[in-house]
Amino acid sequence: MSEDAKWYVVHTYSGYENKVKANLEKIVENRSMQEYVLDIVVPMEEQIEIKDGKKKATLKKVFPGYVLVKMIMTDESWYIIRNTRGVTGFVGPGSKPVPLTEEEVKIMGVEEFMPTVDYAVGDNVMVISGPLENFPGIVEEINMEKKKVRVSVSMFGRETPVELELVQIRKM
Questions:
Q1: What is the pLDDT of residues 34-51, one digit of tens each?
Q2: Whole-angstrom Cα distance, residue 43 to residue 62?
Q3: Based on the number of CB atoms within 10 Å of its own CB, is 78 exposed (0-12), middle (13-18) or buried (19 or more)?
């Protein structure tokens, strides 16, 4: 059943994305529609701002005015989402929602892919991207849920643990 679910783009009033997500989640729960509406996402990305010489990470909406919904399109699920407060409609010609292609879903980074990891705790690795690029290190911990790895890197003559993305290192 859930393999029939596709990602649809819902247009909202700008600034109402999180409110729409919360409202939809409440409605889906109240009407027991979890098998029709599987996921509701407001795509966010972390941006680093430098203010007063200090780095500050903030989350910015990747697509302001849009919410992505993974759902099985039925008359009822369409009606409920279409008539949720803050929703102006689905993206698609006329009132016919068009699901995202698998390629579009990948590009938008909505569905999490799990990177394959060919290294283990204790392995010698090389940092291949980021500020510590080309630094060798030893894997101390791998956290698949957070997609992070802690590597002990030799900096300024001492071992320093750093947290990196799983894809930022490769086995030596």
A1: 999 999 998 887 777 787
A2: 6
A3: middle
Q: What angle do CA 42, 48, 51 make, to 5 degrees?
A: 125
CB atoms near residue 110 (< 10 Å): 16
Q: How far apart are the C-alpha atoms of 171 and 125, rounded to whole Å?
A: 4
Strands of 124-127's sheet, edge to edge? 158-165, 148-155, 136-143, 124-127, 169-171
- Please write the tens of the pLDDT for every residue from 120-139: 999 999 998 888 899 999 99
How far is it, in rounded angstroms, from Cα 129 to Cα 156? Answer: 19
pTM for the model stands at 0.62
- Read off the tokens for 91: 């993206």
- What residue ranges of the chain have pLDDT lower than 70? 1-2, 95, 111-116
Tokens, residue 54: 């200090």
Residues contacting residue 110 through CB under 8 Å, at least 6 positions apart: 7, 41, 43, 68, 70, 100
State how far the Cα of 19 lies from the Cα of 26, in Å rounded to an integer. Answer: 11
Q: Which two tokens stand for residue 107?
A: 């590009």
* Amino acid at site 20: V
